[in-house]
Amino acid sequence: xxxxxxxxxxxxxxxxxxxxxxxxxxxxxxxxxxxxxxxxxxxxxxxxxxxxxxxxxxxxxxxxxxxxxxxxxxxxxxxxxxxxxxxxxxxxxxxxxxxxxxxxxxxxxxxxxxxxxxxxxxxxxxxxxxxxxxxxxxxxxxxxxxxxxxxxxxxxxxxxxxxxxxxxxxxxxxxxxxxxxxxxxxxxxxxxxxxxxxxxxxxxxxxxxxxxxxxxxxxxxxxxxxxxxxxxxxxxxxxxxxxxxxxxxxxxxxxxxxxxxxxxxxxxxxxxxxxxxxxxxxxxxxxxxxxxxxxxxxxxxxxxxxxxxxxxxxxxxxxxxxxxxxxxxxxxxxxxxxxxxxxxxxxxxxxxxxxxxxxxxxxxxxxxxxxxxxxxxxxxxxxxxxxxx
Length: 389
Prior knowledge:
Blueprint: H1 5-11, H2 14-23, H3 33-40, H4 46-66, H5 77-82, H6 86-95, E1 100-104, H7 110-117, E2 121-126, H8 129-142, E3 147-150, E4 162-165, E5 197-202, H9 208-211, E6 217-223, E7 226-235, E8 243-248, E9 251-255, E10 272-276, H10 278-282, H11 286-292, E11 295-297, E12 305-307, E13 316-326, H12 329-338, E14 341-348, H13 355-362, E15 368-377, E16 380-386
Parallel strand pairs: 1-2, 1-4, 2-3, 4-5, 6-8, 14-15
Antiparallel strand pairs: 5-7, 6-7, 8-9, 10-12, 10-13, 11-12, 13-16, 15-16
Helix pairs in contact: 1-4, 2-4, 3-4, 6-7
């Protein structure tokens, strides 16, 4: 269902607000679409009924990123999907310096609103009049003094202390775009900007090699262990080395490389298996983390670390290693049966074996449970049997 500017004006009117309020008490599942639309079209135009149903669903969908405020806001599906994580929005807005901020490709306003809420003079610019109209409504609904204008990122921008740039990373067909020069607009547009500091939000899977011509610093950000985004920092204070940030339990942890990159040290499995936070992995800091935690990598091509003791840190998860053996299905099945293991959780890195294919072949029986970790040890496939967390 498509929401256009006319439908948005209706939804923002008193009759539209009443209709959206009514829909908050309805079953909005796909299976109920026909019944709902049939009932709504008795009192509303088909376009109004369809737009209201879509917006009601989007508000419910957006609650994960906007909380209770989603029930008063306006969205497109693409805007919700690309909106920054709420913890990242808040922490970023509180951490940046500079009074004036321009949010380029501001969409429905999520980041620009966060900057304004943190006390910055925040201007959002987007080429889509519909999204700008939504952003203005969102600012009014939340009582946040952010401003929004229709504009093209390729045109000259007003002066600002900081430019935050969030280009579209999906094509018209909805598929993810991985080439930064295929973003809409392309990353190269930043070369024409004069702000003291520029921050570019990128996919966490971005190729670091593509960013080398731009200089600056690339930061990978995870929230509670889930990798969320990458940010390219350009301008004052930006250094070339990749770094990691972790938002966990209300605290921001940062890890920047110290000195020369650490060389990989390899070892047989020790007492503990350690899995670094994904932000450390994407920032290429696994070897440095291994050194910090008095550990070693199992293989130079995988991110698993082993050590005699589990580190006390928010940057990693750890499992006690009970045993390990070269991967052989028949021997593994016999090993588990001998010990009465009837339930396993399977983790993997650096192997083509999947949990879906492995579990039925193990034919488990027993009361005990274990975690199996499939990976490489200096080029050879192994399986580690770990105590469940």
